[in-house]
Amino acid sequence: MENTASVHAKKIMLSGIQPSGDLHLGNYLGAVKNWSGLAEEFDCFYFMADLHSITVRQNPAELRRRSVSQLAQYIACGLDPEKNTLFIQSHVHEHAELGWILNCYTMFGELSRMTQFKDKSAKNAENINGGLFTYPSLMAADILLYQADFVPVGQDQKQHCELTRDIALRFNNIYGETFKVPEPYIPKVGARIMSLGTPTSKMSKSDPQGCVFIMDSPEEIARKFKRAVTDSDTENCVRYAPEEKPGVANLMSIYSSVTGRSFAEIENEFAGQGYGAFKRAVGEAVIETLRPIREESQRILADKEYLRGVYTQGAERASSAARRTLRKVYKRIGFVEKPF
Ligand code: ATP
Ligand code: LTN
Fold it and tell me: Which has the minimum average pLDDT: 231-245, 255-269, 316-330?
């Protein structure tokens, strides 16, 4: 049995990714990379957001495969299952339950303002379902169930995190202190990696040409960087100017994120060299960053029993934390206590 005092001594981190596609460089640099190394200081929960992913139609066999391979990739990215709670969202039924409850404390107007809803409904005009609309209240439930202090995500999730705070404050105002009010934890560089093909839109799995996947072969990665759109200026000079030169700025962010070099250092390093040499160097740096992750993922993925053990243990640990919060919420709302 864990000692409650020691559990609460550490601040809580929590994040999730939808297994609606394979993990890509944007997910890695914007989110997962920043999760590893936090376990000493924080109590960390990371999950595969499968309940969220069905807001867009999924192929069942693919969804099952990707949920498990995402777990292997989390571990390969440095998340030690002994130090982090890694689980599959649908295994902890409290998410769906609190999700429903928070729907009743989230306003139609608030949900209508979510840019992810607007983007996804434009992309899936034939399937604008209720789940796509109420997605943020389920996300709020994910976070509030664990009394998370911080939510490490990319820039695109900031609006959902802010709504989560509003929902928590609203609930606390009505019923008294129930939820911790969480804060987003967004990296300074890499928070918004753009597509290599269209550097004005974010890198996303729905645009495979502009998207580098963690499991891509070195040859594929090299090819994608070679084709990366730079800018049509005649300057042919590596300089950080996101407004004027979004393609180059994006490549600089990627390079900075994987090498730790500042933009000034990168400008010096490539002074007098054209975009071709720069793109090659960024491609090589990304290949070397992803190589050990890809190899380790493949190795872990071959051991299905091990992975099953990890997500079983993860769900058990997560449930015990989630159950505590849900019980408190039911009581506050006025539900009759379950006698069994
Ligand atoms: P979709 O393609 O459906 O929009 P996605 O690729 O954005 O999905 P998510 O599951 O929505 O994947 O995101 C997982 C995490 O990765 C989130 O924390 C998100 O902020 C981060 N993330 C996603 N895309 C990027 C990106 N291009 N740059 C930085 N971070 C990103
Ligand atoms: N909405 C997020 C995925 C997600 C999440 C969460 C992130 C679902 N629940 C809880 C952080 C905390 C996304 O689309 N990237």
Answer: 231-245
Residue 201 lies in a domain: no
Query: What mean pLDDT do residues 284-295 have?
Result: 98
Look at the chain and report how many structural domains it folds into: 2
Establish if 340 belongs to a structural domain. no
Q: Give the percent of the chain with pLDDT over 90.
A: 88
Question: In this structure, what token pair is assigned to residue 214?
Answer: 């963690």
205 in catalytic set: yes
Rounded (to 5) percent helix, strand, coil in the chain: 55, 10, 35
Residue-number span of the structural domain to which 230 is assigned: 216-298
**What is the domain-level CATH number for residue 91?**
3.40.50.620
The Å distance, Cα 144 to ligand 2 centre, comes to 12
Binding pocket residue ranges, ligand 1, CB within 6 Å: 17-18, 20, 26-27, 29-31, 153-154, 156-157, 191-193, 202-206
CA of 176 to the centre of ligand 2 (A): 26
- 172 with 227, same domain? no
Choice from 18, 27, 167 to test ligand 2 binding pocket (greatest atom count within 8 A of CB): 18
Q: In this predicted structure, what is the pLDDT of residue 8?
A: 57
